[in-house]
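forwarding from the other thread:

> can someone predict this with adenosine-5'-diphosphate?

sure thing
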Amino acid sequence: MSDLIVTTNNLSKSFGDVQAVRGVTFGIRRGEIFSLLGPNGAGKTTTISMLSCLIEPTSGDALVDGHSIRGAPQAVKEVIGVVPQEVALYQSLSAHENLLFWGQMYGMNGNILRQRIAEVLQTVGLADRAKDRIETYSGGMKRRINIAVGLLHRPRLVFMDEPTVGIDPQSRRNILDTVKTLNEQGMTVLYTTHYMEEAQELSDRIGIIDHGELIALGTQEELSQLVGQEDVVELRITEMQVTPALLQALEQASGVRQVNAGDGAVSLIVEDGHAALPELIATSNRHEARVTGVSVREPNLEAVFLHLTGRALRD
Ligand SMILES: Nc1ncnc2c1ncn2[C@@H]1O[C@H](COP(=O)(O)OP(=O)(O)O)[C@@H](O)[C@H]1O
Ligand SMILES: [Mg+2]
């Protein structure tokens, strides 16, 4: 048995002129949490849709637990659980009824199905709400039931496509903890996100995807090394005071590699953060920008993305 549960080989998908996924090749190890991290439109959902046999690749192939997504989609579907980005639930039915419906679609029934339903409701922490109609649920709770549906047939491998977008912090926390628990119980997880904090918290390994291409892959440590010994300096400056002239001046300060503005702060990748600080602050002062806070840290995934693409992940 291969230690890779998923291998993709030059996987590509075009929609007309749009090359959504361009020759993506990677492997997911059994038992790991593997994240695909990338901004909106990077090709995450398209990749997941191909691996779930919902859409056909334009070229390339992938093996899921040894089965080709092109040649043996039925066998692939038995191995995987899919949690799509969009919630697919009947609003006027209870959570329990929705799970019954989906379970029967998967060919389960009777006591086994009831037991599985109880199990997955427990897993997502909504057992006490099982009898309430979905329309009474918050967005985050609906997402959690969506996850429960994907787990019903006890898949060995689960695909979760941005499960925390646009939900309350409590549900987000619950979902991240659920992913970890499932993984501790032996499930392999492919998780997509554009939140680097999530990728950082969850992942054994991370693939960074941008414009349909896998531009880096590795553990966080390996990815951080791509940025080298550089530091990330963050200067807190009110957005109104961040002028193009200031950004240009900061770019020209000594040791500065990259400058990016957003969210009430200017982040810079610099050779040596502490050495650069006095000049950066003096430059800001000269441009009448008041620095209200400063941090210097080792590169995180945001810095890796910035380093590889010249853009911030959150843009
Ligand atoms: N069905 C489709 N028809 C045309 N273009 C699509 C379709 N699905 C996705 N795309 C395009 O493919 C690119 C990748 O999309 P997607 O995989 O949804 O990215 P992500 O999930 O990372 O946000 C985007 O440019 C998107 O507009
Ligand atoms: Mg998507």
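The chain has a mean pLDDT of 94. thats all i got for now
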